[in-house]
Amino acid sequence: MKRGDEEFLRRCRAVHILNQAFTQALVAEGAENTEDWLIITANAATTFTVAQLRMAEADLAEFTQDFPPEFVTKIEAYAQKNNCSVRAIIDRRDQAIKRYLKRGTIKTEDEARIAMGVLADLEYVISAEDRDKLEAMVAEFEESLVGKNQ
């Protein structure tokens, strides 16, 4: 995927739609301040980099863990009416975690952030062995940053 190609634009549109759906659902649930949930703007397709798109998708995947399943089901129904899916975004995050584990290393700060989001979610289904491995990989990456900054 490259910035501006069809896949990139489709995924930017999906993130925008899902962001709107979360915001509207939160307002309907009585939330007064939804600014923290506004992670992108209408012109995301022209301003996002590929890395920013991946992080926005990871943020949306993380948002789902904070809500009851029936709330996420409402979001998914809205998304499907607009030809996108929360599940697809969650699946991409899960595939990224599998890639990191298979590779045995975290390469970027974005990968570390995605991994830390998974580790922070105690309900995320991951074996104890893989959780330990992911924690070690994140720690190793953080140590490498400290070494570079000294």
How is the topology of this model organized?
Elements: H1 6-28, H2 44-47, H3 50-64, H4 69-81, H5 86-103, H6 109-120, H7 128-149
Helix pairs in contact: 1-3, 1-4, 3-5, 3-6, 5-6, 6-7
The unreliable regions are 36-43
Measured by DSSP, the beta-strand proportion falls in under 5%
Helical element count?
7
DSSP E strands, number: 0
Mean pLDDT: 81
> Level of helix content?
over 70%
> What summary fits the major beta sheet?
none
Class by helix and strand content?
mainly alpha
What is the domain total for the residues?
1
Distance between the termini: 35 Å
Order of helices and strands: HHHHHHH
Instruction: Write down the Rg.
Output: 16 Å
Overall form: globular
Q: How would you sum up this structure in a few lines?
A:
With 150 residues, the protein is mainly α. It is built from seven helices and no strands.
Question: What does the model show?
Answer:
With 150 residues, the protein is mainly α. It has one domain (6-149). The protein contains seven helices and no strands. The longest helix has 23 residues, at 6-28. Residues 36-43 have low confidence and may be disordered.
